[in-house]
């Protein structure tokens, strides 16, 4: 059956996904700052309060621990809350609730209660904002057992992944690449099944020389890098990680066994980040197939810089290709 | 600030140990029943049988507490947070609840759990180290203990928001209207989560009763370190009623909690109760209160003992005789023996179960780590 192809932004794709999730299950409620009449500072929940009412799209007081902590209570009452944290750097007041309460509740009750909660966090830099608006805090959450962590990179994934996250019985930290909210892509918006599972990586481009792996906002940059490298005769395989925890390590290992080289890209500081863990696991599993050490192209180990300097901080096409060259130099 | 507010702020703080003129009391430390125009009605229907069962609960949970302490000293528990002195606050409030109300406890509410019908072994397993919780909160509408101070105040508020969203507030149907009660202490009143919970509960008219047991001490810090004004007065700043009750008076605690739960069920929540009481023992078995408080203070509070005053009332009013008190003591002995037996025979779960409930859905890391653990264990058996 021919579907209906539509060109939709990444932001609107999340809106539409949330709408579908709310239509599918009356227990799905949204809670966050300014998400009602305003539709959130990024307009991701635009129109939802008008259609679903103030009980299901809840404008919260300005207290992030309160957003997540009350959502825990709602989950215990049988709801499926979707929390919106306005910006990455504002999630820390809710850190105890996420790490000590949300993540551990199911285990502490020996499975007697579930916390089917989604915590949406717009993350990453590149939008010229003041401090605390451009961070990449994913490793804190990926480090915590009991949480699942995902990041979308394109409109179709955003549309599906948010619905899959809401349907998941475990708490999911859902990272949204804020500088890609306005990117558009065409996909079948009437499809009824997701193209892939929430916790699977996606090989976006096949190649033979180097595997380039990343998630969220850098995926687009990786694809551009691969296209540029092709012009110079280098064949790059590009993988969108999508799931940070659990890590879809098999897809990565399969690719690295083929190419022998891995470059991992992240905006977050390199020290103890996702790329470090991936590097360790790939080394454990692909020791004999690796032609070069795993290369990390990441943010510097400094607080996120003032926005006029952020281009120097963020991995861009040139820095990614430099990382590819370093991997190929062995 | 208005002159009135300034004048109130300048009112002298009640002397240490004195709940002040605002404290609701129905039973004096001497065991005298005193009248209160607003709260008498909540205890008017209590029969002698009810009062005797209150007494039994108080004695049994004091015994549970003593046994917990002894088990820790004998190495059977890793830690024990004592509730000694707070029995009336816990039994009085716990007995005011209806079965479909929901409780969010701290880690010291062994007495509330007991009157909710919890197996007393439940809390022992946490402190014995065989589980990090281990019970189904829905079984007795009694949530897991929360150890991070005040974090449960937000859970209670969110749960109460859910109750309101379900339409189970203010219907007039006693089987449907539901209240949530959240326990915390004077120390927790300084936590951000408790203050955020007050804001959220007020903004969403949540049917939650915040029940603060002010036991005067947050480990070594006196309540004066947490607040300049009596804690129940904090509620007014958040826009809802607060009341101070004599937490060592089971009748007053029962009456005030009944009133506040009714208000919450009728849609007039949230409310704050400050149960003015005293932590007679150490914070936990790891604490040494002789380092920071004088024994004269503890001696003074012994005169306000919650059990003794009810016993005096029962005896003076002819509602119980020596034979009854002896029977309760006997039951407590039996109860303690069962607790002890249950505790020391409690089994530790097998190592491979550690991965079982981290996630609700299948998780590849859990499966891989469990398999690796079992293979590692098996390698020793093969070696032998």
Describe the protein's topology.
The complex is a heterodimer of chains A (330) and B (384).
Chain A: E1 5-9, H1 10-24, E2 28-32, H2 48-52, E3 57-59, H3 64-76, E4 80-84, H4 95-102, H5 105-108, E5 118-123, H6 138-142, E6 148-151, H7 155-167, E7 172-177, E8 184-188, E9 202-205, E10 210-214, H8 218-231, E11 236-240, E12 243-245, H9 249-259, E13 262-269, H10 274-286, E14 295-299, H11 310-313, H12 317-328
Helix pairs in contact in A: 1-7, 3-4, 8-12, 9-10
Chain B: H1 3-9, H2 40-43, H3 48-73, H4 87-95, E1 102-104, H5 110-115, H6 121-128, H7 151-165, E2 180-185, H8 192-203, E3 208-214, E4 217-218, E5 221-222, H9 234-238, E6 242-246, H10 250-265, E7 271-276, H11 295-302, H12 306-316, H13 322-344, H14 364-383
Parallel strand pairs in B: 1-2, 2-3, 3-7, 6-7
Antiparallel strand pairs in B: 4-5
Question: What's this model, at a glance?
Answer:
With 330 residues, chain A is an alpha/beta fold. Chain A has helices at 10-24, 48-52, 64-76, 95-102, 105-108, 138-142, 155-167, 218-231, 249-259, 274-286, 310-313, 317-328, and strands at 5-9, 28-32, 57-59, 80-84, 118-123, 148-151, 172-177, 184-188, 202-205, 210-214, 236-240, 243-245, 262-269, 295-299. Chain B folds into two domains: 3-344, Thiamin diphosphate (ThDP)-binding fold, Pyr/PP domains (Rossmann fold); 351-383.
